[in-house]
Amino acid sequence: MHVAVLPGDGIGPEVTAHAERVLRVAAEKFGLTISLSRHPIGAVAVHAAGESLPKETRDAVVRADAVLLGAVGDPSLDSAPRHLKPETGLLALRSLLGVYANLRPVAIYPSLTARSPLKPERLTGVDLLIVRELTGGLYYGEPRAFDDDKAINTLRYSRAEIERVAVVAFEAARGRKKRILSVDKANVLETSQLWRRVVNDVARRYPDVTVEHSYVDFAAMRLVADPASIDVLLTENMFGDILSDEAAVLTGSLGMLPSASLGEGAGLFEPIHGSAPDIAGKGIANPIGAILSVAMLLRHSARSEVAARAVEAAVARVLGDGARTRDLVTANETAIGTEPMAERIIAALARTD
Questions:
Q1: 74, 231, 241, 327: which one is catalytic?
Q2: 245 in active site
Q3: Considering 59, 78, 201, 217, which one is annotated as catalytic?
Q4: Active site annotation includes 241
Q5: Which end is more exposed in the chain, N or C (fewer Cβ atoms within 10 Å of the end residue's Cβ)?
Q6: Out of 85, 109, 140, 185, which one is annotated catalytic?
Q7: Same CATH fold, 117-251 and 1-99+258-353?
């Protein structure tokens, strides 16, 4: 299989370089044939080609079997026209690939419970999956407009858009604890009323899966008050964006969480963190989110569960041995850099049976 690598901006190239190394080691270890090529996206692409998703990159990703993305974002372009913003390139990439279902697993490493702001007892048994609709809603709806006096965004969903992401969530729940928490704002939004109706329609096909509906404000509270009660959390684009970042706090750092975006074409795999320009180039970024995104690539695109589990086990082993990047250290702990953390994970992966 061929993987198009889009390192992006800020710390993206740093963490992605090490994720590539992990992918190569896993491929060799488990007999997978994987080739990689690099292409620009985001602010790097704007400065080089005048657009955040150049034709070269568009052509490369539609030919690829999977896409590995670092991060996009650059404060110098915050006031740029919309078509020159790095984030516009990311939205265009998702739309181009047709990746409508974003999967964000949140699991607790016992060795990191002290890093979470929650009490350890609230973290016991936390293992949840957020399934976020990714190509609809406010981020894509038209019309949209902005001037000095008013701004317009349109929240729009169709039955087909809701149904297809709900099916992904129900299928995932069948392989887990068979529970879905569907999150909406059906008391005030017509799109949420449709969301709830369609989710209930899909639920009839899955009598073995229990469905619970929740307003987004209560779901946000439940994520920190009783996260272990959630198995699969299904929601729309903007709510999922916010709730998944909130859920990252449970693990102690945004740098820990991977994601997989799946749909019609090649899967898109990326850590959920941003470009973090304030620490770019310092060698202190946490590469684990990017490395665990490689595990999801191996699982969903390469179809190698054994390789995916080996990468995840290597990360767990290194963390269990006490290795910490700066975002993970607590009192009396010493941080290591991006490269040393990656080196330890690669060494652990090489030793994995």
A1: 241
A2: yes
A3: 217
A4: yes
A5: C
A6: 185
A7: yes
Q: Is the Cβ–Cβ distance between 352 and 318 less than 8 Å?
A: no
Active-site residue among 9, 74, 109, 139? 139
- Say how far apart CA 223 and CA 149 lie, in whole Å: 37
Residue ranges per structural domain of the chain: 1-99+258-353, 117-251
In the residue annotation, 185 being an active-site residue is answered as yes
Element (H, E) at 340: helix 338-351
CATH code, residues 1-99+258-353 = 3.40.718.10
* Listed residue (153, 226, 240) closest to 195, CA to CA: 240
CA nearest neighbour of 256 among 288, 283, 224, 279? 288
User: Side by side, which strands form the sheet with 66-71?
Assistant: 35-38, 2-8, 66-71, 267-271, 258-262, 101-107, 127-133, 232-235, 179-184, 210-215
pTM above the 0.90 mark?
yes
> How many CB atoms lie under 10 A from the CB of residue 117?
9
Helix, coil or strand: residue 137: helix
Encode pLDDT of 33-52 as tens digits.
Answer: 999 999 999 999 999 999 99
Catalytic (active site) residue 184: no
For the domain with range 117-251, which CATH number is right: 2.170.120.12, 3.10.20.30, 3.30.360.10, 3.40.718.10?
3.40.718.10
The yes-or-no answer on residue 217 being catalytic is: yes
Asked if 186 and 217 count as a contact pair (C-beta separation under 8 A), the reply is no
pLDDT per position as a tens digit, 327-337: 999 888 899 99
